[in-house]
Amino acid sequence: MNGTLAAAGARKTIRVLLVDDDDDDRLIIRDLLVESMGKNVVLDWESGYETAKSRISDGVHDAYLIDYRLGPQTGLDLVREASREGNPAPFILLTGHGDLDVDMAALKSGVADFLVKTQLTAQVLERSIRYSMEHATAMEALREREESLRSLFDAAFEGIFVLDEDGRVLDVNSTAAQIFAGDPAEMIGSFLQDSLIDAEPLAAAERSHQVLARRFDGGTVHLDIYTKPYRFRGRPAVLTACRDISQRVQMEAQILQQDRLASIGFLASSLAHEIGTPLGVIRGRAELLGMKAGGEPVVRENVDVIVAQIDRVSQLIRSLLNLARGDKAAELAPLEPRQMISSVMSLMRHEFSKAGIEIVKELPEDLRVLAAPGPLHQVFLNLFVNALHSMQAEIRTGRPKAHRLRVFAKPGDGVVEIGVEDTGAGISKANHKRLFTPFFTTKDIGVGTGLGLATSYRIVEAWGGSIRAESEEGKGATFFVTLKTPD
Questions:
Q1: Staple partner for 473: which of 121, 153, 313, 426, CB 3.0–4.6 Å?
Q2: Are 417 and 481 a contacting pair, CB within 8 Å?
Q3: What is the DSSP string of 10-52?
Q4: Helix crossing, 246-274 with 452-462: angle to 10°?
């Protein structure tokens, strides 16, 4: 409640400011107030516009009687200026004669009452002041209650949307705006469903959904969404609460990945023992056979094929062993990823150029991370090769589109996130969950083993980092490699 109005109610003495340039009118109003309120009223007077504005800004009065005619400016101008400053005390407009247009303009300006001087009586004036003050007190209490409820609405731990029956946003709290990286004012009037990727339509029923949503900054976020019927300003609506579960989803994926890698580790150890030794014997016998072949080119050619295929199987077993144990033994050191990534780009520049793909590097020169050069080179080589294959697949569809590989960095608190963004075919929702699963690949037989991303994941995880992907089918993909920075 306004302190001035509350104080006035406690002491039962009302302080009124009259703004009128006619001294005779001042005397008349003074007498009417004394007649109706006696010693319970104190009347102050100002005749000039600017001096009255200064007195009003002091905020010490409980009510204001404002004459409509104040020289070149009007009492309504004074009321509008005072209202912009947030003065809660009521304004009562006085005029020499009744005028409907002035009356309507006064109400729109926030005037509490409109009185004609020629019709003033002690009772009319006293009642107008009393009712206006009571109304102002009630409105101030209502405003404070609304502010308190709005504060609670915005401070809620969950994002909250109020949707109409068509799914249009009628109201949104600050938490929801932060989750979606948007401006609350711009979000009102939009359709929440448009930001949900491959999600069921939100219904006016008590339901829960787990969805992937598109943020206003282009990123994505995993959400738990709850809906229930609601009435908003007397109309049917849908109350929708959402919670960011991206970290939980990522943690669950990491736990699942750990379980898979543990199984792969057991398999790799068994393979290395059970298959590695026989392969070594076969390779040795094949080489011996090749030495005895002498000038038989057909025999020599077939022996070379056998040896090459044995080496391929051996390399696969080594990859499995590396995947199972990670690269924790590699010595970590501060290095500049910009330089290392440049060498990977140089290695693949011909392939990208041949496919008409632009390469963009947006990495600060002073960027440093903790990693081992060889394994990190392998990580980004895997990501670049995958990006190339994805864009080549999109090019083969014949759809006209400019393709680009973009590498950028997002420094954080003690970490840096390096993004590898392509404009390829993207990743389907079903495949997104299996990206880092060993042996999972969407490439043709013979093109990939499905160990590249799984191995990269294991390498970076062994350094205390992480890899995640954001993608929509048909809209390219971005892989984010998070690495620690030197202290």
A1: 426
A2: yes
A3: HHT-EEEEEE-S-HHHHHHHHHHHHHHHGGGEEEEEE-SHHHH
A4: 110
Given a contact cutoff of 8 angstroms between Cβ atoms, the answer to whether 46 and 18 are in contact is yes
What pLDDT, on the 0 to 100 scale, is given for residue 44?
92
Provide the pLDDT for residue 445: 41
Q: Does domain 156-244 have CATH number 3.30.450.20?
A: yes
Which listed CATH number (3.40.190.10, 3.40.50.720, 3.30.70.3270, 3.40.50.2300) goes with 3-152? 3.40.50.2300
Identify the residue whose tokens are 């042996």. 439
Q: Which CATH number is associated with domain 333-484?
A: 3.30.565.10
Average pLDDT by stretches of 10, the chain with 487 residues: 43 84 89 88 90 87 89 84 80 79 73 86 91 88 87 89 91 92 90 86 80 86 90 89 86 64 61 73 82 77 83 68 53 85 83 90 89 84 89 84 91 91 85 65 50 80 88 87 88
**Residue written as tokens 């060993």?**
438
What is the strand order of the sheet 477-484 is part of? Answer: 358-362, 404-411, 415-422, 477-484, 466-471
Report the C-alpha gap between 310 and 389 in whole angstroms.
27
Topology of the domain comprising 248-325? Helix Hairpins (1.10.287)
Q: What is the pLDDT of residue 209?
A: 81
Question: What is the pLDDT, as a whole number, of residue 269?
Answer: 65
Assess contact for 352 and 405: CB atoms under 8 A. Answer: yes
As given in the structure block, the two tokens for residue 407 are 């590498």
